[in-house]
Design brief:
single chain, alpha/beta, 3-stranded parallel sheet, 8 helices
Length: 284
């Protein structure tokens, strides 16, 4: 694993190394943003080895994860691993800018290296159930989501926690987002997403308290309202997903599923700065 500051590192290592919930996989090496982070992850996750540079993983591992808190560090950190043809899971968000993500995925295709990225929220059973029910509603008119987000986070502003809502909502909308606008309040904010289909959707970005994730879907044939609760083991479904890709070389994730959330977040960041509606950058 590249990155030890994020709590995900220890969680993943404990599931694979201590609970041994995914047969045939274990975390053997970790690189940390500091020696303290690396040592803490090693001890709590029972990870045998610490490396001083992500490149030191080459020749030592069959696959790698990267989970920096700030997405701008993700792809640069694992670029050498991609060149070494090591399969990669990139934690959310996949990257900080669409342009770098497109180049990375194009290179991965040329090298025939499997890569996937996603938020853990769409992997929860509650979201899977919501998605199944939403398909019965016909044309989607609006999606409204609520969840925690600090648009001033030092780890990438709206991208850091906004990715969870964005990843869920764009999947429900079939990745049809053309423009966005972020509407600022004092501490809590909303974001409006516009779709070519005519759908207009809202994200409630709440920085106060501990707001649970919630999604409402309004369609031609009715509506669904559901709290997106975490599975008993929050990370297990996601871990099984990327381990399946490591084993088979195949993933259900596509350029669209990985890049559209980044495009929306990039546009939202510009909307904060420019205080207006922003066109979502092209992902093709």
């Amino acid at each position: 694993i590249v990155g030890a500051e994020n709590s995900h590192t220890v969680a993943i290592a404990r599931i694979l190394n201590i609970q041994k919930l995914v047969r045939g996989f274990r975390v053997t090496h970790v690189w940390g943003e500091s020696a303290r982070y690396a040592k803490d992850a090693q001890e709590r996750g029972e990870i045998p080895n610490i490396v001083k540079d992500p490149k030191d993983l080459i020749g030592q591992v069959d696959a790698a994860l990267v989970d920096h808190r700030h997405a701008k560090y993700h792809l640069p950190a694992v670029a050498p691993l991609l060149e070494a043809k090591i399969p990669l899971f990139v934690d959310k968000p996949f990257c900080y800018r669409v342009s770098e993500g497109k180049k990375f995925l194009a290179r991965a295709r040329k090298l025939k290296v499997p890569v996937c990225s996603f938020s853990v929220l769409p992997k929860q059973a509650a979201f899977a159930e919501l998605s199944k029910e939403a398909r019965k509603l016909g044309k989607i008119i609006s999606v409204v989501s609520t969840g925690p987000c600090d648009i001033k986070s030092k780890y990438g502003g709206v991208s850091f926690y906004g990715i969870h809502q964005v990843d869920m909502v764009v999947r429900l909308l079939g990745h049809d987002i053309t423009h966005v606008q972020l509407n600022r309040g004092k501490g809590n904010h909303t974001a409006t997403l516009f779709s070519a289909s005519g759908a207009i959707s809202t994200l409630n970005l709440i920085s106060e308290g501990r707001p649970a994730f919630h999604v409402s879907v309004l369609g031609e044939k009715g509506r669904i309202d559901k709290a997106i609760t975490y599975d008993d083991n929050t990370y297990l479904s996601g871990i099984r997903t990327f381990c399946r890709m490591f084993r088979t070389g195949k993933t259900d994730e596509t350029d669209t599923t990985m890049l559209m959330p980044v495009a929306v977040l990039e546009a939202l960041e510009k909307s904060i700065q420019q205080k207006k509606r922003i066109k979502v950058p092209s992902i093709t």
